[in-house]
């Protein structure tokens, strides 16, 4: 079974949603047969490579509220994150473009460490306050999850995987993705937002049941049959 997750490093609900999904997956009896693929999504393709404002200032401008009101908004999100074991330090977050980080995630997928890098990028952005648009920062974070630093540096210096990032975004749109996180199971079922684990678990069970239908026995038991114990004659 395949689960595709559209997510952005700059999205706190994506960080929260991944934890809730992973809790559900841990309870799913067929979890070893589930392939998880992280898909790219850019919330702000016009964000700068160097932070020019704080999260609170950006939200205040976007929603036309005061900085103090924006602070209240992010405090609520931080409390929800804390309930899931996450430390969301919005006072440290650097609002920057995530396009190159998504390119790096595609490289990580080729080496089987995409999930590890996705989680590390979220922590770097929301807890450590790192600039996830800075190439040397990305080189270091990639190396932390097992990627070759020189390969990462060369990839970032090129335009590699830019088309893959854009293709992910287009694919998401085809499945109805208008915001993140967005989960698509076996290209048939979608779960939108950072739902609670029981919602994800229910979706996994339903998708599994649809792809592995139980055989319906018609007519009940019969004496006119043979089994391992022999034949009824």
Question: Layout of helices and strands, plus pairs?
Answer:
Elements: E1 2-7, H1 12-27, E2 35-40, H2 55-63, H3 67-83, H4 99-110, H5 114-126, H6 135-144, H7 149-157, H8 162-174, E3 182-185, E4 189-192, H9 197-211, E5 226-227, E6 230-231
Parallel strand pairs: 1-2
Antiparallel strand pairs: 1-3, 3-4, 5-6
Brief digest:
This protein is 49% helix and 10% strand. By secondary structure, it is an alpha+beta fold.
CATH architecture: 3-Layer(aba) Sandwich
Number of helices: 9
- How many β strands by DSSP? 6
Tally of structural domains: 1
What do these coordinates show?
By secondary structure, this protein is of the alpha+beta class. The protein has a single domain, classed as Glutaredoxin, CATH 3.40.30.10. It is 49% helix and 10% strand. The strands form two sheets. Strands 2-1-3-4 form a four-stranded mixed sheet, with helices on both faces. A two-stranded antiparallel ribbon has the order 5-6. A hairpin with a 2-residue loop joins strand 5 (226-227) and strand 6 (230-231). The radius of gyration is 22 Å and the shape is globular. The protein starts with a strand and ends with a strand. The mean pLDDT is 94.
